[in-house]
């Protein structure tokens, strides 16, 4: 880890020392990203609870499957929507913040709410809540009632550090439900690694594979690879689309999830454009003004920290973050004294007995014993639902 390399990096001069210490501390980290203190220049003023929004920033792609009567075409449209979400999920900070940044660690009960309003798709609602702090787990639900589609899921991260790269395995899954066809899609989450750490310009690359298993039988497996030493472009994927258990794929979809991809019909060998991420503009999420937000809503709660991050006022970042962390510690202490547990707002941890357990098994995935599920009723009866 040569000084020269850090010399040449995006690390502000006065922070090179702390950055070196931080990089060394990563090697001894226990895998919980939230417990690692990163130098202020790599901090984002956005809480991780907001990241659930990346699933539906393209409402047209999100609702498109509901309008397709042919179940094979419909399952292909679900795969296209999933691929379309990846650019936002895993590269958008590079554009907006210059590199990947360390998001703020959500506190238990922190909620992020918003909606997309578009001409053709109408209203698409986002509910995201931090349902666990140790380990950190975010649960979310996104739905559009006009088209009858709902995505819900939860995720946590397990990090490990290898030589120059930070590896992040995601815990959890997503489930898409299309009401008109009473159809479910079980979606697993990609493993990622952070490159460019030494240059102080970290960015995400995806690896290994994920799958989308439909209750209609259609299944897609997606393999991810990045820019290797010798060959290969960044953000590359290859997906195989199957009608069911049989081995022969009906279609092969390949390309870059942050760029163009093509689909090849394995029977006719005809190839055509599948999706072009450079052509698709995300729709901004509408979030209530801060003064109309509850004090547990993300942007209201982190307002002072986010403002300090904006101006790189490291002392204020520390003071304001500690205030929130101390409040949370007080809350936990009181709960302990009173022998009460923190009540989640809009999600509940349940034994997964439904169709999803079978779907997970069909997909050959070890289903989680307990899963976080959206309590729509609780949300709709709450003042928070007045978005
Ligand atoms: C702290 C790392 C941030 C990540 C890995 C948190 C999880 C983010 C997830 C997986 C959350 C769920 C979303 O659906 C998809 C998603 C996208 C990005 C993921 C984040 C990337 C960020 O990189 C951070 C680590 C790199 C670097 C900024 C500094 O290193 C550290 O701070 C080490 C703790």
List the helices and strands and how they pair.
Blueprint: H1 3-7, H2 16-27, E1 43-47, H3 59-63, H4 71-97, E2 102-104, E3 111-118, E4 122-133, E5 136-144, E6 149-162, E7 165-178, E8 183-188, E9 191-195, E10 203-207, E11 209-214, E12 219-225, E13 236-242, E14 251-256, E15 260-265, E16 271-276, H5 298-301, H6 303-310, H7 314-338, E17 347-351, H8 355-362, E18 370-374, H9 376-380
Parallel strand pairs: 1-2
Antiparallel strand pairs: 3-4, 4-5, 5-6, 6-7, 7-8, 7-9, 8-11, 9-10, 11-12, 12-13, 13-14, 14-15, 15-16, 17-18
Helix pairs in contact: 6-7
This protein binds (3beta,9beta,22R,25R)-3-hydroxyfurost-5-en-27-yl propanoate.
Residues 33, 36, 38, 42, 48, 51, 54, 89-90, 100-103, 155, 157, 166, 168, 170, 194, 202, 204 line the site of (3beta,9beta,22R,25R)-3-hydroxyfurost-5-en-27-yl propanoate.
Tell me what you see in this structure.
This protein is an alpha+beta fold. The protein has a domain at 2-208: Helix Hairpins. 26% of the residues lie in helices and 33% in strands. The chain is built from nine helices and 18 strands. The chain has helices at 3-7, 16-27, 59-63, 71-97, 298-301, 303-310, 314-338, 355-362, 376-380, and strands at residues 43-47, 102-104, 111-118, 122-133, 136-144, 149-162, 165-178, 183-188, 191-195, 203-207, 209-214, 219-225, 236-242, 251-256, 260-265, 271-276, 347-351, 370-374. Strand 7 and strand 8 form a beta hairpin. Helix 6 runs antiparallel to helix 7. The protein starts with a helix and ends in a 7-residue tail after the last helix. 34% of the residues are buried. The model has no long low-confidence stretch (mean pLDDT 91). The structure holds (3beta,9beta,22R,25R)-3-hydroxyfurost-5-en-27-yl propanoate. The site of (3beta,9beta,22R,25R)-3-hydroxyfurost-5-en-27-yl propanoate has 21 residues, from helix 4, strand 2, strand 6 and strand 7. Residues 33, 36, 38, 42, 48, 51, 54, 89-90, 100-103, 155, 157, 166, 168, 170, 194, 202, 204 line the site of (3beta,9beta,22R,25R)-3-hydroxyfurost-5-en-27-yl propanoate.
